[in-house]
Known about the structure:
Blueprint: H1 5-11, H2 19-22, E1 35-37, H3 40-50, E2 56-58, H4 73-81, E3 84-87, H5 97-100, E4 106-109, H6 129-132, E5 144-145, E6 148-149, H7 156-173, H8 178-203, E7 210-215, H9 219-224, E8 228-234, H10 243-254, E9 258-263, H11 270-276, E10 282-285, H12 299-315
Amino acid sequence: MKFRFERIYQRAGVRAFSVATVLGVCSIGSAAADVVSSIKPVGMLAQAMATGVTDARVLLPDGASPHHYALKPSDMRHLTEADLVFWVGPELERFLVKPLARIEGRAVNLMGEEMIEPGHHDEEHDHDEDDHHDEHDHHGDAHDHDGQDVHPWLDPGKAVAMAQRMHAALVDQYPQQREQLDANLEQLKTEIAQAEVEIEALLQPVHQRGFFVFHDAYSGFVEHFGLNQLGYFTIDPSRKPGARHLAEIRDELESQRAACVMTEPQFSSDIVQTLTEGLAVKQAEVDPLGAGTEMSAHAYAEYLRDLGRRFADCLTP
């Protein structure tokens, strides 16, 4: 396993010895990581930023949802041992608010202020989706907090801003590694720009074709690439959509305004199957959390490309 004295070398600007060099012991998967990210897309950006500087880990496993995740003791240990924790913010990972208030490391809220106020965001916003849910009016719902996008990584421009905030935190933590961190940021920005060009070319022929997504997560991607999202099945995937809202979607599908319906691997697609039964509408599985994407310094750009391909395949006649 890695030991804390490795971090002393890193902060002093000296390359940390590997475990094999120091003790002849191989590193294992449960070793502590200096940087911990809440979810995989955040981890992709953190991996790119931390490459050559320190170790990075993702807290939530593939298939888990930040909307209703329960921390395990091992998760709390990873948070406690980390120097830096990157998370989107209490609007998305509400389960992290109190745990992060108890750690000694620095928790970096990538959407807003770093100050964490335990209990401030614990209350659910109760509402009846059948009475109040409208695909064009999201005020006051669980995924719209004063206009904040709680899935910012799906917008390449916002992803760059997240990476820049990570860069600043990493420079503060590892000032002797500034040159490497600067190079990492520039490399990531270049890769994102290249992916954007490819995705725009892929989606331009189908940008006017309408579609529905499973839950309200993709506005950043949709708006960035100028796509025609007609609506979504549910605001919050932990809540079932109301009957009236589903009837409205069925009417849209029957009118053939929608070419495609997107499902997500973390949630049951039974509702989607029922609504599309007997209709000539294509389906595709997309995952805002990037399950299955192999982690690397280049993972985020590949994740974007995969999203672009899935949207294009579903929207192409």
